[in-house]
Amino acid sequence: xxxxxxxxxxxxxxxxxxxxxxxxxxxxxxxxxxxxxxxxxxxxxxxxxxxxxxxxxxxxxxxxxxxxxxxxxxxxxxxxxxxxxxxxxxxxxxxxxxxxxxxxxxxxxxxxxxxxxxxxxxxxxxxxxxxxxxxxxxxxxxxxxxxxxxxxxxxxxxxxxxxxxxxxxxxxxxxxxxxxxxxxxxxxxxxxxxxxxxxxxxxxxxxxxxxxxxxxxxxxxxxxxxxxxxxxxxxxxxxxxxxxxxxxxxxxxxxxxxxxxxxxxxxxxxxxxxxxxxxxxxxxxxxxxxxxxxxxxxxxxxxxxxxxxxxxxxxxxxxxxxxxxxxxxxxxxxxxxxxxxxxxxxxxxxxxxxxxxxxxxxxxxxxxxxxxxxxxxxxxxxxxxxxxxxxxxxxxxxxxxxxxxxxxxxxxxxxxxxxxxxxxxxxxxxxxxxxxxxxxxxxxxxxxxxxxxxxxxxxxxxxxxxxxxxxxxxxxxxxxxxxxxxxxxxxxxxxxxxxxxxxxxxxxxxxxxxxxxxxxxxxxxxxxxxxxxxxxxxxxxxxxxxxxxxxxxxxxxxxxxxxxxxxxxxxxxxxxxxxxxxxxxxxxxxxxxxxxxxxxxxxxxxxxxxxxxxxxxxxxxxxxxxxxxxxxxxxxxxxxxxxxxxxxxxxxxxxxxxxxxxxxxxxxxxxxxxxxxxxxxxxxxxxxxxxxxxxxxxxxxxxxxxxxxxxxxxxxxxxxxxxxxxxxxxxxxxxxxxxxxxxxxxxxxxxxxxxxxxxxxxxxxxxxxxxxxxxxxxxxxxxxxxxxxxxxxxxxxxxxxxxxxxxxxxxxxxxxxxxxxxxxxxxxxxxxxxxxxxxxxxxxxxxxxxxxxxxxxxxxxxxxxxxxxxxxxxxxxxxxxxxxxxxxxxxxxxxxxxxxxxxxxxxxxxxxxxxxxxxxxxxxxxxxxxxxxxxxx
Length: 937
Known about the structure:
The protein is mainly α and 937 residues long. Pfam families: AAA_16, GerE.
């Protein structure tokens, strides 16, 4: 509470030194609630000013405002308690002091009152002759009137006094407008208003409370949520520290939602002391949700325009509202304080009136819904429609939690079974499908049972999440099949019914993808649609995406055919920012397997730019996670491991605490694919832990997690166990008719493990099978990898020819890492000479650019690797940190230089070490990476 208060301490010290020199003065500290005026008073006199000073203290209180000369008594009592006994007894019996007991504060005789006030001034003059006085009075707005008159008398007649008077006065309090207070202000004290704390002070407080520097996001959120008000800020940080929160970006959102109870009590006490208009206006603002205009709030509070303007000004002066314009509370704790200062019946009655008032004035549905949800208002005939409209708006904005709350309240007001309740249940299913798939299925089942129209029943059933990389529960599949049968085939339908039929067919065909017969039927269905299937509607595109994926995993198409259809789907599909519950991720998978990702990257970028971020919620967590997962896949298909891992890590960050959600199986697949290439045991263990908690994982998930488990076993040297795990995955995939090695690379792992275990025959047989399938598929990345594996198994000229062919094929691939591996193998096989050196050098350059510097070291000829690290490997922030390390700066110095936290510096350095393939700061500071980073000296 005392940070950045140097101006105030200096002013108090100057006043005290002036008093010692015989010049009395008065200093008044004013400001809204929570600026630390009382804390400043308690800290006076400062360490350099306290010696030889006599201090008189008093703290005014509302309950003692009618006690005449109560503040004066407190001041002299505090002086006597610290004075030697002889002096204390002499002052106690002094008639000038005892006169205030007889005066009673209302003598009605101006001469007698003047005599009392002058007598007390004379007494202080005598006392100050021995030592300067520091007179401190807190909360002058509550001081009794006689004491205020006396203080004004002292300030107006300073001659002969060696005293400094310092008082505090809260802005906006009704007591501050009493005549006696105004007289004191007219006497000419110096007025100071302690300012809000700066972001630097907030950083200091975070460090003090948590013992560690806070992330910039955390510190900025705390400062923004409190406006730098010391009371709000310290209360917030104290509560977060007590709750065990860490000052990290992950906890930044808590700054906007946390409501410390002690802060609420303090603010409630402040509100209880206000005038009736101020209290009623605050209650009206709380009932309206803090988002209504002043006119509406005044109408609800029952105030005329003059009263409302004055009350609004007082709330602003108290520091409880934000700046001009639409009045809003500065923090949610203020709304709690308003509730704490009123009775439940008062709050309920005002909420009832507020809801009707908002509806009558045409307020936004979201605002009315918020009030309906937060209060137990009686059912209204229009409420369900308003709540449903608000829920639709929230879902479009990526806020399913708010939507679910509104819909649950609407269901309370719609107890009768029928179509209206069914539609609400279907909407609620859509709102909770990302977080509670079981509840989603339950709501859909109930909704379908209440609907009679087949199209409506089908649309309700389609609210069940598609689980494109997971497995739908049997009851959900049965429900989809039943509604599809009731609706009939798409060829016989039109409009919405046809769209629903196409989407149901897509869901059911994808649900049967692990059955070889169903998979074959899907391939035949795709071929029956001709070379250019119709893609005009969303239903047609969803069905085409599902059938494309079926043909890709079964190997029924060539990569060129899959790429052609995939590109057509993307051309017809708008680049929407939220693809969470569409079949489009299947198209992304197919195109990545087809080694055709350029169009995917631009399409994903376009969708990302359309996303409207929401600071309060974190930008729609599930949609963000899908976006990062798709980006990770496309980057992986390009061999850019560093960036792929960064996006994969964001998938985990954006899905905290939701491992059982519908999308968890899909996310586990993406993470496992990245982990297989990254080969970081710690990262792989985290992915396996996440995958183990997936709900209904399905064959894709179990296969990819099985391969990841095998990679860990191989890393531990358990090659036989790893091989058995890989072959088990292969048998499961083959039994379902899934032969694509582009999407499920079990054969390359099995080939390597057979070779390591010395079984060359099995390795070559499996490598030949992989080569044959890769040729049929035709994607350069898969074919080049198959050729490289065979080239490793064969010696002499045949092996060299296979590796040379692999390099040639991979030059036409988007996967630069696969080309680096083939070049490395070729360089090692050649043994020496210009051709070998050129191959190894190019392999090194590609490997480092892909974020895999370990590939260079495995070549055994590290001097033939990359001459440096391309600048694109590091982000701009990482490059700045690396440059400052090169200048010899410590992490603390770098943090100050860049205006970030030391933890942020450590994070950038850790990422830089990994990307540059070095062990730590010593190698970084040695300048070995300098030329590659564009640094000199």
